[in-house]
Write a structure and sequence with these properties.
The structure is a homodimer of 337-residue chains. With 337 residues, chain A is α/β, with parallel strands linked by helices. The first copy, chain A, has helices spanning 12-23, 73-85, 108-111, 126-142, 159-174, 206-219, 256-265, 284-287, 319-335, and strands at 2-7, 28-35, 43-46, 49-52, 54-55, 66-69, 89-92, 120-122, 146-152, 226-229, 238-246, 270-272, 293-300, 308-316. Chain A has two domains: 2-124 and 323-335, Rossmann fold, CATH 3.40.50; 128-317, Dihydrodipicolinate Reductase, domain 2 (2-Layer Sandwich), CATH 3.30.360.10. Helix content of chain A is 32%, strand content 22%. Chain A starts with a strand and ends with a helix. In chain A, 57% of the residues are buried. The interface between A and B is large, with 58 and 58 residues.
């Protein structure tokens, strides 16, 4: 049995962590759900029965084995080191520690071994986690020289308030009422916003650079350049991405597209949806609320010749992009106790 | 004065052709509005007053100088040659003649001279026209080695019924009712569909290949490879695109990003929206129902070094992608009479 805490238990990611813990039948002993002071004392229905929300304190964590942090970077920066010092394994969903060379950044099916004895483990950015699941099997077999990504990101990236804003403001739009925005920089219904997170010095956004930084770190290889444009679109909870790569090895001479399909079919956590003639390809409609990352529209890229590949992925932002990946990290930690 | 006909006058593109003709104060003499047999006899309000819809016939076109075809490829293939034989200039919005080497494919600010004495002139695919407006000034100055496009295409690409399906089915979704699809292969509200037009032998869709074929033809240069993923998203009438290019000339050594901005600022039909720190970038919200193609998020691409550029464009699909471009072709034809 493991005593488990969740900071941010009422948020979109926190709720999914509870669901995944239950679905995976993780043997949960004590369960502590931490929320804002405002919600503390309220009851929350969970797959483990009704629990009373608590305000976070280090003392309240005393008996925990693992704590999931699904709050914000500032919270993680303040508390993660203190929790780790108490011997609690911290699985952090924020970007606070992802670029710290002493902290492992983990997608378990790719680099579980990076966890080692670390007491703080960073969960990657959602876009990167979804991308990595589909890209890694290809990278392993064919190598990578270039990676170009364009994203189609759901409002769940901004949590429940983001999804709610899309629904509420879409309704306003359809009712002919003024359409506002509070969570997003502009109204999101029937619109898109090519701006996620803050701009960096190179005019890429932080969200775009996360894909570069984190893919390199997870693959433990920064030899291939990466470029990304990250775009928010009016969908709810699955991120999609167009992916163009140049490989090291000649694809045609090493099994061609059929070999790529075979690799992906054999990869756990990936679901091939690649039959456009029967209208089958990755879509948020089918990729939402499921664990596997969908991959399809696989074809030779027309720009990089026999070394070029182009495909489309779609994955649940709250699951593969956050909760599922976090719980899979916990499974590795628990299996090694 | 020019006598003008429109086949498909009640469609989304036909209506915009009427609006653009009026806004540009084209001296319209006789005006013939052709519709399906079902609508013939009905009245249609236009900026030129109320007109009675007619069923199309070659005889009814007798006095026309120019006819816009905004119907489908089959109609164009059947009637365009016969209309041209009567001396009528045919401006065709379908893809029927775009790849015919004897028929010019025209974006007037780029290749107006291609019109020559041709009586049939093809209007490009919407995605290509929007892309070409932003890309051509950069191509002229820096040359092009590679072009990689990902699209975010609006439902207007499927005409009024496409837009109506998005609105109606979004309402159903929000009301908790079943969400259907008739125009699109799958339900479009809060979803996306990486499948526009029919798949080709190389597993690209025809929509994706149009970007390749048509950009090469409009630029009169097929030396640079092009690859595209075309995705339908739940927006109404503006298409967006991420564009990654490798140039012939070193960008940094030839004025850098500032030079690119300057080129675009000086290009007619292009509106620079490139200030992410003030939340300014191309979006359907601002690019809809305006003539200019918006360009922003301009930055050095991280994959192609000093020869790499990445940017984002957004343009009204019905205007720059169809009606506006068609009327601009007509303007060239009329100016040369």
């Amino acid at each position: 049995m493991a005593n488990i805490g969740i900071a941010g238990a009422t948020g979109a990611v926190g709720i999914e962590i509870l669901n995944v813990l239950a679905r995976k039948e993780i043997p949960v002993g004590e369960l502590k759900l931490f929320s804002s002071a405002r919600s503390a004392g309220k009851k929350q229905a969970t797959p483990f029965g009704e629990h009373i929300l608590e305000e976070f304190s280090l003392d309240a964590c005393e008996n925990l084995d693992i704590i999931f942090l699904a709050v914000g970077g500032d919270f993680s920066r303040e508390y993660a080191p203190q929790l780790a010092e108490k011997g609690i394994t911290v699985i952090d969903n924020s970007s606070a520690f992802r670029y710290d060379e002493n902290i492992p950044l983990v997608v378990p099916s790719i680099n579980a071994e990076a966890i080692g004895n670390s007491k703080i483990i960073a969960n990657p950015n959602c876009t990167t986690a979804i991308l990595a699941m589909a890209l890694y099997p290809i990278y392993k077999e064919f190598g990578l020289k270039k990676l170009i990504v364009s994203t189609y990101q759901a409002t769940s990236g901004a949590g429940n308030p983001g999804m709610q804003e899309l629904l509420d403001e879409s309704k306003n739009y359809l009712d002919g009422k003024p359409v506002g925005n509070n969570i997003f920089a502009h109204p999101i219904p029937f619109n898109l916003i090519p701006h996620i997170d803050v701009p960096q010095e190179n005019d890429y956004t932080k969200e775009e650079m996360k894909v570069t930084w984190e893919t390199h770190k997870i693959f433990n290889d920064n030899s291939f350049p990466i470029s990304c444009t990250a775009v928010r679109i009016p969908t709810l909870r699955a991120h999609s991405e167009t992916i163009v790569i140049e490989t090291e090895k000649n694809i045609d001479e090493n099994g061609g597209i059929e070999k790529i399909r075979e690799l992906l079919q054999q990869s756990s956590g990936v679901h091939l949806q690649d039959d456009i003639r029967n209208n089958i390809y990755p879509m948020p409609l089918n990729a939402s609320e499921v664990y596997d990352v969908q991959v399809g529209r696989i074809r030779k890229n027309l720009v990089f010749g026999d070394f070029g590949l182009e495909f489309f992925v779609c994955g649940d932002q709250l699951l593969r992009g956050a909760a599922l990946n976090s719980v899979e990290i916990a499974e590795v930690v628990l299996s090694e106790r």
